[in-house]
Design a protein that fits this description.
This protein has one domain: Alpha/Beta hydrolase fold, catalytic domain (Rossmann fold). It is α/β, with parallel strands linked by helices and about 280 residues long. Strand 1 and strand 2 form a beta hairpin. The protein is globular and about 55 Å long. It is built from 10 helices and 10 strands. The longest helix is centred in the middle third of the chain and has 20 residues. The strands form 2 sheets. Strands 1-2-3-6-7-8-9-10 form an 8-stranded mixed β-sheet, with helices on both faces. A two-stranded antiparallel ribbon has the order 4-5.
């Protein structure tokens, strides 16, 4: 049973950074739980420094990480951060997803044609490729600086951030890639470059973004779906019939319970994309 209630609010979808961290000093979090919350915390405006960066670092400190190194590309408004937990050498890279108020982010999402991904192989979404390349130098510097202190490397992100993390996984070959509400990123040749990387891809019920771009022109997903049901329970081996029935029931319930309320997202297919609705399932 989820301890965090389902959040249908526009704030949860459009401004996920507003909610305080769900981490506590007494909590015990597995890798997927860490990734889900760090993917949400990646929306904090840490690129501004000051109190915002301090807020991110305080949340990271609750789970043993010492500080954070931000990666920012002002040209296309893409962001991420790296952090290392020296107690066990765990290193995490988290990338920020699409911000609805950012015209640069929306422009990247709309560049849906496939382009050559010369960093490894295959073809990938042109906008996602541009976003990853804009952060490449900063990420490479961080990877080099932490090479002797980390024992494992995990990449994560939500939405656009999940796509960026997937592209970097083809370059730096992490121990694991955990994607939260990820769109399709590239073609089969690109996905094959991720062989050897443990991929966990979470799909929250009706989340529309996980069905984009449509599977035409070569687009396929990286990693099998780990489906989250309408009540926030994991069903990793759910077949198509189960998923379609669960989604239909979710949409019907949403109309009755949330769609009419002021301040809530009008359709479940968008509300399910909110990062907190992944966190509620993956963080105890």
């Amino acid at each position: 049973m989820c301890s965090i209630p389902y959040d249908a609010s526009c704030d949860a979808l459009n401004s996920p950074e507003l909610r305080p961290t769900v981490f506590t000093a007494e909590g015990n979090y597995d890798i997927d739980g860490l990734c889900a919350e760090l993917a949400r915390l990646a929306y904090i405006r840490y690129e501004n420094g000051g109190a915002d960066l301090q807020r991110l670092e305080q949340a990271l400190a609750l789970v043993g990480f010492e500080g954070a190194v931000p990666f920012n590309n002002a040209d296309d408004d893409t962001h991420g951060f790296g952090a290392v937990r020296h107690s066990d050498g765990l290193a995490l890279l988290a990338f920020r997803g699409t911000e609805p108020q950012s015209l640069s982010d929306i422009a990247l999402d709309l560049k849906g044609s496939l382009t050559e991904w010369t960093e490894s192989a295959g073809q990938v979404h042109a906008g996602f490729a541009c976003a990853a390349r804009g952060l490449r130098e900063a990420v490479d510097d961080w990877l080099q600086a932490t090479a002797t202190t980390r024992t494992q490397l995990i990449l994560t992100g939500h939405s656009l951030g999940a796509a960026i993390a997937t592209l970097f996984a083809s370059i730096c070959k992490p121990n694991a890639l955990v994607t939260i509400g990820s769109p399709r990123v590239g073609d089969a040749t690109f996905v094959a470059t991720l062989d050897g990387v443990a991929i966990t891809r979470y799909v929250d019920c009706c989340d529309l973004v996980t069905d984009l771009p449509p599977p035409i022109g070569g687009y396929i997903h990286a990693g099998a779906s780990n489906y989250i049901t309408r009540v926030g329970e994991l069903a990793p081996h759910a077949d198509d019939a189960f998923v379609q029935a669960d989604r239909a029931a979710a949409r019907e319930d949403y109309v009755l319970t949330y769609a009419w309320r002021i301040g809530d997202v009008m359709v479940r297919d968008l509300a399910d994309h909110a990062p907190i609705n992944y966190v509620r399932c993956l963080v105890p």
